[in-house]
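Supplementary notes (optional reading)

For those who missed the lab, this is the record we used. Protein: Secretion system C-terminal sorting domain-containing protein. Length: 76 residues.
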Amino acid sequence: MRSQLAFTLGMAESRPVRIVMYDLLGRPVAMLYDGTPTAGQEETLTRSLPRLPSGRYFLRLEGESVNAVQPVTIVR
């Protein structure tokens, strides 16, 4: 579906994390995940996206001992 985003989340340790989508100006536009994934297991998550214009965004995984950024492009 065009209004959804699917991504895979896998963590070596079971710790609370959040995945937030940011626009190019660094403003948060969507909270995609806020929880504690099971250690050693990958989950494919599908989330509905807010109505955002086409463009480049960034998914940021934020946690106590982990931070990662992945670019994504929305095409409408």
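If you only remember one thing from this example: The mean pLDDT is 92.
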